[in-house]
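Collaborator request, handled under Task 6.
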Amino acid sequence: MFAKLIAEYRFFLSQPHNMRVLLITNMLYALVLPVVEIFMAAYIMRYFADTSYVAIFQVAMYTGIIITSLTNGFLLKSFKVAHLYSFGILLSGLSMVGMMFVKGITLPGLIVSGTMIGAASGFFWTNRYLMALTTTNDDNRNYFFGLESFFFTVSNIGVPVAIGALLASIDGVRLFGINFDIYLGYRVVTVIVFAITILACFSLARGNFENPIQKDFLYFRFGRLWNKQILLAMLKGLVQGFLVTAPAMLIMKYVGKEGSLGLIQGISGGLTAILLYLLGRFAQPKHRILIFGVGITIFLFGTIYNGMELSMVGVIVFVLCKVFFQPLHDLAYYPIMMKVIDVMSLSENRNKYAYILNHEFGLYAGRVSGLALFIFLAFYVSETFALRYSLIIVAALQMLSIPLAANIMKHSYSNEQ
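Structure tokens returned to the collaborator:
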């Protein structure tokens, strides 16, 4: 067993230097994402006791992503991509600090905080895509995203467990003359998160990442193949917003407190992490559609079961399916997207960032549409109805992305547009 681990480590060392640096940086940031994705929603839910406020926060966050994705294109003309990526990492920590340490949160303050955290995510994700594009190729992207998904999955297990245990253990405790409560516990977590973002920035500084040569990046007309990719991005965005908010909403409403978040996700997360690493290590590009389809089918099953059994058991089944679905989906989706960018940027002789930016617009359209569906059902029917059926609707629509992704792969490899 030890010999196999050594062999895998040597295989990691055989990868390009910049790819290894980016993976290590993303591994550190993986410790931060669960806090943003799960506990921020739980914090808002606890503070306002209304799931619609979580949805409003998410819309503000996704709007912030779009604003900074556009701004980032202009900044790339003057600043290094690695510096902008580091800025995004630090900004995510600072935004959380600002939100957690404000004594009273109003709706305008919630929107501003959401926009700031989204701005940080915009710098992080768009520059991450750009660096991943330039440091990987179609042959090693399965490995890159498999290992990265392994990091994120392990963090999604360990971090919520650790934070849940911390929040439960210090609530009502007096230490060093300070009376701790759940809100002060959130602030301690936020300080720790900010320290990790600083470490991630130091890690990234060891790499040498190049900016795009072409400076123009804002286009409104693209080839047919890329338009199909944008439709796929909209379908992904449609369900993506729910993956951030729904688990926290459902668990807080039907299962228990924050400590339950880590316990439930940890049940199946370990197996998923191992599966992701093996798929990334050994799966070939031709296997991406199979991985893609299996992940979506698992998610659909989880939403249907949750809709039929909207209780603690139903929520647990849904979250377990979500733990399997999300990394499997991403493992196949991002290499497909990057292959299309490789083909289209060469064919249309454009800056690769033009496609990354346009991709964010596609994701945004899907995310806002999905959250608008939830808000509409919550306000005009009932919150219970929204939690029960909106997930089923977006999961069913997500099934359309399987034949679409297969068509995109076929044409990207044949260079047809």
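The cover message to the collaborator said: "The longest strand covers residues 174-175. The domain at 7-207+221-414 is CATH 1.20.1250.20 (Growth Hormone; Chain: A;). Please let us know whether this matches your experimental observations."
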